[in-house]
Write a structure and sequence with these properties.
The protein contains eight helices and five strands, in the order E-H-E-H-E-H-E-H-E-H-H-H-H. It is α/β, with parallel strands linked by helices and 172 residues long. The radius of gyration is 16 Å and the shape is globular. Keywords: Cytoplasm, Endonuclease, Hydrolase, Magnesium, Metal-binding, Nuclease, Ribosome biogenesis, RNA-binding, rRNA processing, rRNA-binding.
Length: 172
């Protein structure tokens, strides 16, 4: 069983249970998208001690939690899983993903750096990433940035330090 040194921030006990099935890991559960100050304090303390990986569901609530944590702990690592890899007929969540997809997500963590500008707005437009959701999705999946709209994709690509050249390689 693979040991994960960082604390993994998940939404609930089902996510914890699923991860512990495949990994030797510790988690902090947010209890949903209304994250209390106490839970944010625990996450910050864990980040200072061991580091954290934010691994929330690929949905609106998961993105909300991710933004809250990113504001408070910009150096946090982020793991993303595609919605198609983490869903049943009725639900979407980390707890519905398979072992291989969870391993891939945790192996491909990204740390976002505020104020990093490796890609200009002009580059982003030239690469055709504004009006073409499938093209944008191909790029964000290649760099494990999660599904996002054009504005978020531009921000995440810059914060992850991705260059125009790297994007061009993916699009070839």
């Amino acid at each position: 069983m693979k040991k994960i040194k960082e604390m993994i921030v998940v939404e609930g006990k089902n996510d914890t249970s699923k991860l512990k099935t495949f990994f030797d890991c510790d988690t902090i559960e947010t209890g949903g998208d209304h994250v209390s100050k106490e839970v944010l304090d625990r996450i910050e303390a864990a980040a200072n001690r061991r580091g954290i990986i934010v691994f929330t569901d690929p949905d609106t609530a998961g993105e909300h939690i991710r933004r809250l944590i990113k504001e408070r702990i910009p150096e946090a690592k982020h793991a993303f899983i595609a919605k198609s890899k983490a869903k049943t007929d009725k639900k979407v969540g980390v707890e519905h993903a398979g072992k291989e997809d969870l391993e891939k997500a945790l192996k491909s963590c990204v740390t976002f750096m505020e104020g990093n500008f490796t890609l200009s707005r002009e580059d982003f437009l030239d690469l055709g990433l504004t009006g073409d959701a499938l093209r944008r999705q191909k790029v964000t999946e290649a760099f494990h940035l999660g599904k996002c709209n054009a504005k978020t994709a531009f921000k995440r690509l810059n914060e992850a330090g991705i260059t125009r050249e790297q994007i061009e390689e993916v699009l070839e």
